[in-house]
Amino acid sequence: ILRGGSRPNYDKENVQHASEQLEKNALDAKMMVDCSHANSNKDYRRQSDVCENVAGQIADGERRIIGLMIESHLVEGRQDVVDGKDLTYGQSITDACINWDTTDVLLRKLADAVKSRREVLSQQASA
Question: Domain limits of the chain?
């Protein structure tokens, strides 16, 4: 799982580097990308940017990315549990999350990216 580290690692160059390292160690070059944590610089709102970048890679034919992790909930952000205070239904009490509407948009973009990847790979196979 590419989740970033001292810097984000979801871009095309980092996917290539991770693939080379996996192959060098006789491992299958398949990976997931975490759109949160260090890849979003710990800002849940940047998950969309990460996801859209990865969707672009997938649409261009990238086959080594097999999944994404997105911090998502019904209501964006996060909340603290405080005695005597009602919780907001559908909002995380752990990590900050994007909301459902944003998640829906991203999932549709990813679905379109997979369709595009299938077309790209089909054209390559026909050539």
Answer: 12-126
State the number of CA atoms in the 13 A half-sphere of 101 facing the CB.
Answer: 2
- Which residue is it, tokens 């973009």? 109
Closest residue by Cα to residue 78 from 93, 65, 67: 93
Dmax over CA atoms of the chain, in Å, equals: 66
Question: 70, 98 in Cβ contact below 8 A?
Answer: yes
The pLDDT tens digits for 22-61 are 999 999 999 999 999 999 999 999 999 999 999 999 999 9
Q: pTM here?
A: 0.92
Let me know: does 29 contact 23? Beta carbons within 8 Å: yes
- Name the amino acid, one letter, at 50: V
What is the C-alpha separation between 48 and 13, in angstroms, rounded? 19
Q: Which residue has the tokens 């398949």?
A: 30
